[in-house]
Structures are given as structure tokens and as C-alpha cells.
UniProtKB/TrEMBL annotation:
<feature type="domain" description="Proline dehydrogenase">
    <location>
        <begin position="43"/>
        <end position="298"/>
    </location>
</feature>
<comment type="pathway">
    <text>Amino-acid degradation; L-proline degradation into L-glutamate; L-glutamate from L-proline: step 1/2.</text>
</comment>
<feature type="binding site">
    <location>
        <begin position="185"/>
        <end position="187"/>
    </location>
    <ligand>
        <name>FAD</name>
    </ligand>
</feature>
<dbReference type="InterPro" id="IPR008219">
    <property type="entry name" value="PRODH_bac_arc"/>
</dbReference>
<keyword id="KW-0560">Oxidoreductase</keyword>
<dbReference type="InterPro" id="IPR029041">
    <property type="entry name" value="FAD-linked_oxidoreductase-like"/>
</dbReference>
<feature type="binding site">
    <location>
        <position position="287"/>
    </location>
    <ligand>
        <name>substrate</name>
    </ligand>
</feature>
<keyword id="KW-0285">Flavoprotein</keyword>
<feature type="binding site">
    <location>
        <begin position="224"/>
        <end position="225"/>
    </location>
    <ligand>
        <name>FAD</name>
    </ligand>
</feature>
<feature type="binding site">
    <location>
        <position position="133"/>
    </location>
    <ligand>
        <name>FAD</name>
    </ligand>
</feature>
<dbReference type="GO" id="GO:0000166">
    <property type="term" value="F:nucleotide binding"/>
</dbReference>
<keyword id="KW-0274">FAD</keyword>
<feature type="binding site">
    <location>
        <position position="286"/>
    </location>
    <ligand>
        <name>substrate</name>
    </ligand>
</feature>
<feature type="binding site">
    <location>
        <position position="199"/>
    </location>
    <ligand>
        <name>FAD</name>
    </ligand>
</feature>
<dbReference type="Pfam" id="PF01619">
    <property type="entry name" value="Pro_dh"/>
</dbReference>
<dbReference type="GO" id="GO:0004657">
    <property type="term" value="F:proline dehydrogenase activity"/>
</dbReference>
<dbReference type="InterPro" id="IPR015659">
    <property type="entry name" value="Proline_oxidase"/>
</dbReference>
Length: 304
């Protein structure tokens, strides 16, 4: 049943008609638990609150259904405005973005043009941009773009997914450019031809790439709500004398808040991934697919 539900939500997340319907009716049925509103102002307010609780943030202006050059340019401008708003408010937050939201599926050169403008703005404000990894079809081109950008910029990072077979080799190649990586399990529906189908194998690979990246001396963001992964990381850094300044834990807005607070109390850096914007549907569907408990939260909201 759980697998069926996961497949349904992952399929819905890619449905353009469902996305348009979600935009029409706004953040209802529990989505606001995971999305910090539809405006920059709402997002900045959320960042301020999280900062007050000892957490840093990465903001993501959601946009996954971009089909025209005009939409891609507008999405890039929203990223730039987000960086400007972060600077103006004096809050502590990076920026995360998806390459498809700024034109990758339209033209690679359009995407690169938009991305350089965003990175130049981030550099102006002494800020950092994280490129989110998307589905397998976008994996290689995302890595290629990142490696090209690292020749020009030192304020850009990438996401690597533990559930892909190719990840170990990707880590080896990315170490050549001293990549700043966010390590995740992976949230997209992928074929067993390219991704581990069993959670046990994904977890083992996750631990392996955490170990590899930390021992390589690179900055590592461990993005997980899995307490076993977090405990493994804490034990590993202690045993290998890895300073807290070399890594951080990352979690999604609205999920495992008590665990976030506990890690802050223990002296670890915790960064909360805070999405906002009107194009929230695909992100929300993946959150439901990841954790069945999120589905019941939504169901309860239907009757309020």
C-alpha cells in the first residue's frame, strides 16, 4: 500500500494539469506545513523565525513547470530578488534552485546565462547558491554544468543522490573540483536499472558517500530526517576528528522540528530547506511520497 501511494504522488507531482489546479486553489489541505507561503515577504518572515531559533536556512523559489524562455527568465529574476531580499532583511539564508526552473529543458545556454546572473548576484552579497539535483534524466547535465561553473565561481554547490548506482563514481569525479555537496537519499521515482530499489542498499550507500566526502576534506551537507543516518554521522565525525565547521545537517521546513531543535542544542549547524512560491505542487507531492505520515496530516486538515 505504501509503495502504491508513493507511486501515485510521484506521478501526480509531474502532472501539469494538477499543478495548474493547485495554483488556482492555493496552499490548502496541509501544504502550508511544508511551504513558507507564496511571496518573498512570507518566506523572509519564516527565515527570521528560524534564525531566532538558532537555525540557518536555504530558500527555494519553487518552479518546476517552466516551458518558455519568458518563464525561465522570470524564475531567474525571482531567484535574484530572493537574494536581494535576504541581504536587505539581514537574515541568514542561502539560495537553492532547480536548473529546469531557469531554462535547462529549453536551452542549456539560456540556463547558463540565467545561472551566471544569479551567481553574480550571490557573490555581490557574499552568499551561496545550491543547485538541486532533479530526476535521472537531468543528472549528467547538472554535474557537467556544476563542474563548468566551479572554474568561475566558489559560491556554488550541488546535490548528490545516494539511491543512484552512479553516485560513487560521481563523487570521485566531483572531488577533483573540491565540490561542496548536499548529500540526500533521493526523492524521484527511478527505474531499478539506475537506482537501488531497496532502502537498505540506499542507506548503506548514503553512509558510504558521507564517509567519502568528509574524509576527502570537503564541505558536506547531510540532508536527512533519518535518525540512524544522523547518529552515524555524529559518531563518524567524532571518531575521525572532523570539525563541526566542515559539515551541517539539513532538513525540510515543517518536518522533524524537534529533532532540528535537539541538534541545535547539541551544537550542530542545522540548515532548514524552506520552499516558497506559487509553483509548489510538485515539491509537495514528493514530500507526501516520501513520508506516509505526511499524508495523514493532510487528510486531517481536510476535516478542519
Amino acid at each position: 500500500m505504501e509503495v502504491l501511494m508513493r507511486n501515485v504522488f510521484q506521478t501526480l507531482g509531474k502532472n501539469r494539469s494538477a499543478n495548474q489546479l493547485a495554483k488556482k486553489y492555493g496552499l490548502r489541505f496541509g501544504a502550508s506545513r511544508f511551504i513558507a507561503g507564496e511571496t518573498i515577504e512570507a518566506a523572509i518572515h519564516t527565515v527570521q523565525t528560524l534564525n531566532e531559533h538558532g537555525k540557518v536556512v536555504t530558500l527555494d523559489h519553487l518552479g518546476e513547470f517552466v516551458f518558455t524562455e519568458e518563464e525561465a527568465i522570470e524564475s531567474a529574476l525571482m531567484c535574484i530578488r530572493t537574494l536581494e531580499a535576504i541581504a536587505e532583511a539581514g537574515v541568514t539564508s542561502n539560495l537553492s534552485l532547480k536548473l529546469t526552473s531557469i531554462g535547462l529543458d529549453i536551452r542549456k545556454d539560456l540556463c547558463m546565462q540565467n545561472l551566471r546572473k544569479i551567481l553574480d548576484t550571490a557573490k555581490l552579497y557574499d552568499n551561496f547558491v545550491r543547485i538541486d539535483m532533479e530526476d535521472y534524466a537531468h543528472c549528467q547535465v547538472s554535474i557537467d554544468i556544476y563542474e563548468e561553473l566551479r572554474k568561475e565561481y566558489d559560491n556554488v554547490g550541488l546535490v548528490i543522490q545516494a539511491y543512484l548506482y552512479r553516485t560513487e563514481q560521481d563523487m570521485h569525479e566531483l572531488n577533483k573540483c573540491r565540490a561542496n555537496l548536499r548529500l540526500v537519499k533521493g526523492a524521484y521515482k527511478e527505474s531499478p536499472n539506475v537506482a537501488f530499489p531497496d532502502k537498505k542498499d540506499v542507506d548503506e550507500n548514503f553512509q558510504s558517500i558521507i564517509k567519502t566526502h568528509l574524509l576527502n576534506g570537503n564541505y558536506t551537507a547531510i540532508a536527512s530526517h533519518d535518525e540512524q543516518i544522523i547518529t552515524y554521522t555524529k559518531q563518524f565525525v567524532k571518531e575521525n576528528n572532523i570539525p563541526n565547521e566542515q559539515f551541517e545537517f539539513q532538513m525540510l521546513y515543517g518536518i522533524c522540528v524537534e529533532l532540528q531543535d535537539q541538534l541545535v542544542k547539541e551544537g550542530y549547524k542545522v540548515r532548514v530547506y524552506v520552499p516558497y512560491g506559487i509553483d509548489w505542487f510538485g515539491f509537495f507531492m514528493r514530500r507526501l511520497a516520501e513520508r506516509p505520515a505526511n499524508v495523514w496530516f493532510v487528510v486531517k486538515n481536510l476535516f478542519k
